[in-house]
Design brief:
Elements (H helix, E strand, L loop, with lengths): L3 H33 L7 H29 L8 H17 L4 H17 L5 H18 L7 H30 L2 H40 L6 H27 L8
Length: 261
């Protein structure tokens, strides 16, 4: 949604420019009609000038009335700077997403921002492993169909859950650094438990990616020789045969190469 305050003042500026423009036009048409109107009476051209002048005067008056009515209304309150920045960022993200490579660029920026936020915590290394595994699975997901589709959906849900868990681990770790000595022990225990859950979850995700790659390799591997290789071999044999036949025909047609009797 656009800024209502900015829209209000833009409308005021447009009305002011329109009122001034019609006022100047009405004054010019009125002066022209007054000069060109003959003293003996009004003709058809003079009536046209007078009608145009009257219309311009009426439009100018309406514009000034609209301008005064709008100016009398209180302007909408200004947006909070944080809300204005959020709206500007949302508009920028929407514009980038409409570009051909926009979604990929935004995804990479989000990953980089997340890595930067977790830097210096124990969740940074599992996060990097999860990111590599997710990118690998993303390259395989388009070819994982049939029985593998439920596993791909489960992997997407697990990816979101593990990323949230990594952020929770980092938050608890930062709070642990600030905690007093008497409250540090239970918080450290909770941090160790969350970190262990993150490590086991990332390891399970990596095993899933390896299993998906194995499934794809077995599904794509033919039982015997690859069809493309067999077709290439047949085409090669055919070309060799055609080349040999052409060589024999050329030898028969050349008397110098014919065998002597």
């Amino acid at each position: 949604m656009a800024d209502e305050r900015a829209r209000h003042f833009r409308r005021l500026r447009r009305l002011r420019r329109s009122a001034r423009r019609w006022s100047v036009m009405a004054g010019g048409l009125t002066g022209t009609a007054a000069v060109l109107t003959p003293y003996a009476g009004l003709g058809l051209p003079d009536a046209a000038w007078a009608g145009a002048a009257g219309s311009a005067l009426a439009l100018a008056a309406w514009r000034w009335v609209d301008l005064r009515a709008l100016a009398a209304r209180p302007a909408p309150p200004a947006l909070d700077p944080a809300e204005a920045a959020a709206r500007s960022r949302a508009r920028l993200v929407a514009a980038v997403e409409r570009l051909p490579a926009g979604p990929g660029v935004l995804a990479e920026l989000r990953r980089a921002r997340s890595r930067l936020a977790l830097r210096g915590t124990s969740a940074a290394e599992p996060w990097a492993r999860l990111d590599r595994a997710a990118l690998t699975l993303g390259g395989l997901a388009g070819r994982l169909s049939g029985l593998a589709e439920p596993a791909v959906r489960e992997a997407a849900d697990a990816d979101r859950s593990l990323r949230e868990l990594a952020e929770r681990v980092a938050s608890v770790e930062r709070a642990l650094r600030l905690a007093p000595a008497d409250a540090r022990a239970p918080l450290a225990g909770a941090h160790r438990e969350l970190a262990a859950q993150l490590e086991s979850g990332v390891a399970a995700y990596e095993r899933l990616v390896v299993a998906a790659a194995g499934y794809l390799a077995e599904d794509a591997r033919p039982s015997g020789e690859h069809v493309a290789a067999s077709r290439l071999a047949e085409a090669t044999d055919l070309l060799h045969g055609v080349a040999s036949a052409l060589a024999e025909l050329r030898a028969v047609g050349d008397p110098l190469r014919s065998p002597t009797r």
